[in-house]
Design a protein that fits this description.
This protein is about 55% helix and about 10% strand. With about 600 residues, the protein is α+β, with helices and mostly antiparallel strands.
């Protein structure tokens, strides 16, 4: 393994040297670490590669974790990516973490969850509110290659992961008595720490839950492991359960204050939501790669015309998803007290767009889509099963609506068309940003900086409306989304205050529309933020196509798509396929 690590490190010195030369030092370093992981994992389509898609899909068929690849990631120090730099890790910004993780998720979304990202979800409460001793202990665990599990509290609309919860009763003399059963916990059987969101107050109030940090090795009585749970999605050995029976928990296990669990969840989940979305884009890119393979293999002629629309459209959707997720991830560092609603919208929109993209790609793959388990074409079946688990299904959607809907009236009355635009660094790849500090993350409030950006972009493009060409169409699209925001402002002013709005599906529909408007704003802002180093992203074609597809989902009046727009996006897609580049905003070099 040492030889593999040395080879990968040497390989990364030659990867993207020109592309990353002008980036901020932290982003340059993150891209190099991502390139090192890409080289370590090797050619995903090589049947002899023990970390390739064939080996990963075979482990999935056996309902086993890909043990060799998980060991490789441990030896590569993946756990350090989830530890803030102040504790000896490499976590500086959430957007850079997503870049580093993409090589793992590009191969297998379940691998990304099992080998690492779940530890991020679990430990975020510790970084936000833990004591110095808790942070040090948690950092040491992850830096040594250990894992942590998050034990969720029960939510309405709950699925298996969110069903059931533990209760913690105060003990005479201090500490807690933990009781309850939860059948589905990610990585419960292999974790060195449990971060438990336990009910400490039977009343249904914002102070009903507290967070406990538990070391399984120190719990000698009152704890029991439950059998492994087999699922259709993420079929590796990820899911098993725990049972606590009057288990004594020391007082120093409490993270933050008693009753702070719900607030900690709301603050920290916004990081989790955005990272899931950004890394899922990489997983969907592998399915797109399979579809381009199916459309080009064995053909001496260009891609059949009937496949132009789905291929170019899905590529544009992936860039749209990446734009939205990346803006939110960067905002967590630059505007940590103002990102809560956007993060929920990202988690709301991106999984849905990716699911629709998989359906479109199935039509391109045709019979190849039934070649389950093959490196060339098995990614569609695998991601179709895994994506709902990653997004927590309907429960994840409901949780995001619960964040967005109660805020819409306030946004309509006090933020839209009033807020100032955010700093331009938010949208510029390579710009230096503050480090992510979980302690600064806020809940609700803070206005709507992305809606302000949409309005600003439309104003700047107004001068080119009516002159013809792609840029004029982009200007018309920008104005169409501003009009949609104006219409939403009038509708949202009628929303009843508080949580009562969640009981009426009509108000929940407005959260759908608003979230898509934010996606459009992110596309425009990302296009405006280009520095010209990537001619394709600097040109308007991809943004025009992506906005047209978003607008189509909203059913708003749209200008006609220019004839050359889809062709340019398709040409770039084929170029990336043939030269081995990823299908996201970074266009990074892939192992092959």
């Amino acid at each position: 393994m040492t030889k593999e690590l040395i080879h990968a490190t040497m390989a990364t010195t030659q990867i993207h040297s020109e592309r990353i030369a002008g980036r901020a030092a932290e982003e340059t370093d993150a891209l190099r670490r991502a390139a090192r992981l890409e080289a370590l994992l090797g050619d995903p389509y090589d049947p002899a590669n023990p970390h390739g898609l064939g080996a990963l899909f075979a482990a999935d068929e056996r309902h086993e974790p890909p043990a060799a690849t998980e060991r490789l990631l441990v030896e590569a120090g993946l756990g350090a990516e989830f530890v803030p730099a102040e504790f000896g890790g490499r976590l500086t910004r959430a957007d850079l973490l997503a870049k580093v993780l993409r090589p793992v998720f590009r191969r297998d979304l379940a691998l990304g969850f099992g080998a690492g990202i779940t530890s991020l979800f679990a430990t975020s409460a510790v970084w936000a509110a833990g004591s110095p001793a808790q942070r040090r202990t948690t950092a040491d665990l992850l830096l040594a290659g250990g894992r942590a599990s998050i034990v969720h509290h029960e939510l309405a609309h709950s699925n298996a992961i969110l069903r059931d919860e533990f209760t913690a009763r105060p003990r005479p003399g201090g500490g807690f008595s933990l009781a309850g059963r939860k059948d589905v916990i990610i990585n419960a059987a292999v974790s060195g720490a449990y971060v438990v969101y336990a009910r400490t107050d039977p009343a249904r109030t914002p102070l009903s839950h507290s967070v406990l940090l538990l070391d399984p090795g120190e719990l000698t009585a009152g704890i029991g492991a439950l059998p492994r749970v087999l699922t259709a999605g993420m079929r590796g050995n990820l899911f098993s359960g725990l049972r606590f029976t009057d288990c004594d928990i020391p007082a120093d296990a409490l993270v933050g204050r008693t009753g702070e669990g719900v607030a900690l969840a709301l603050r920290t989940y916004q990081v989790n939501r955005c990272v899931i979305a950004a890394t899922a884009v990489a997983a969907a890119g592998t399915v797109l790669h399979s579809a381009v393979r199916a459309a080009t293999t064995g053909r001496s002629l260009p891609i059949a015309r009937r496949r132009h629309k789905p291929l170019a459209g899905v590529f544009a959707d992936l860039l749209a998803c990446d734009s939205m997720a990346t803006v939110a991830l960067r905002a967590l560092s630059l505007l940590p007290d103002r990102t809560h609603i956007l993060a929920a919208a990202v988690k709301y929109v991106v999984p849905d767009l990716l699911r629709e993209s998989l359906e479109e790609l199935a039509s391109v793959l045709g019979s190849h889509g039934y070649e389950h388990g093959t490196p060339e074409y098995g990614a569609l079946d695998k991601l179709s099963r895994d994506l709902p688990v990653a997004g927590l299904g309907h429960a994840g959607t409901a949780a995001c609506q619960a964040v967005i809907v109660p805020q819409l009236r306030t946004l309509a009355e006090s933020a839209w068309f009033r807020d100032a635009e955010p700093p331009p660094e938010l949208f510029r790849s390579g710009a230096a940003l503050p480090r992510l500090d979980y302690r600064l993350l806020g809940i609700a409030g803070g206005g709507d900086f992305l809606a302000a950006s949409l309005n600003g972009a439309a104003s700047r493009l107004a001068d080119v409306r009516g002159v013809g060409g792609q840029l004029a169409v982009l200007a018309d699209l920008a104005e169409a989304f501003v009009d949609e925001l104006r219409a939403l402002r009038e509708q949202c002013r009628a929303i009843p205050p508080g949580a009562a709005a969640l009981a009426d599906p009509a108000w929940c529909v407005l959260s759908d529309r608003y979230s898509l408007v934010l996606a459009a704003a992110a596309i425009l802002a990302t296009w405006e933020g280009q520095d010209g180093s990537d001619p394709f992203l600097a040109a308007p074609a991809w943004a025009v196509l992506a906005l047209t597809r978003i607008g189509g989902r909203l059913g708003i009046p749209l200008p006609e798509l220019p004839e050359d727009c889809r062709a340019q996006v398709l040409d770039e897609l084929v170029r990336r396929y043939r030269t081995g580049l990823s299908y996201d905003l970074d266009a990074t070099e892939l192992a092959r």
